[in-house]
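Sequence, structure tokens quoted for completeness.
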Amino acid sequence: MVEGPAPTSGDGTPAGDAAGKTEWRARILASRRTLDDETRSREAHALAEAVERLGPVGTLATYAPLPDEPGSGSPASPDSFVAAATRAARRVLLPVTPPAGPLSWSVYEGPRSVREGRFGIVEPIGPVLPPSELARADVVLVPALAVDLRGVRLGRGAGYYDRTLGHARPDAMLVAVVRDDDVVNELPEDPYDIRVGWILTPGRGPVRVPE
């Protein structure tokens, strides 16, 4: 776990605004760039096993990680998030990224049913379902740069998931996926941030947020 003080503003006060989040993002992305292929592969395997342990469930909403995200790799790989999700759930949803607003969804039908979408994110080629489809998900895996012990999640700043997670059911399992080093004591939080109830890492698997 990353410890130490939260980023501060120019006058030394805690930064709970966009500037504070920018510092966190820069530091974590820089750290991810230093990872070697062996570490990435080992963590991807551990994450896939952890995702599989979330089942059996009816519907699981997940995502295809970008190259710098934990668990990255081809959806066809047995160590991929997406492949693990198909072993944990009867139905798997992947996001379809619109120009703005909340994410849409589509059902994953196998590695041949996807294409590269907006921002280079892999998405299904099937019918696009509305954001409200997320209400069918029992488990929602959420990408994150970091997450704190209160369940506050740090994303990349586009706000897609903050606009999307409000469509999840109150009893759905919201799970932020990060590296073990990216679980931190406290992150800056904005009023529109939606907290998660679970954290999934390669070393710990899925664990409930303490608070």
The chain is about 20% helix and 25% strand.
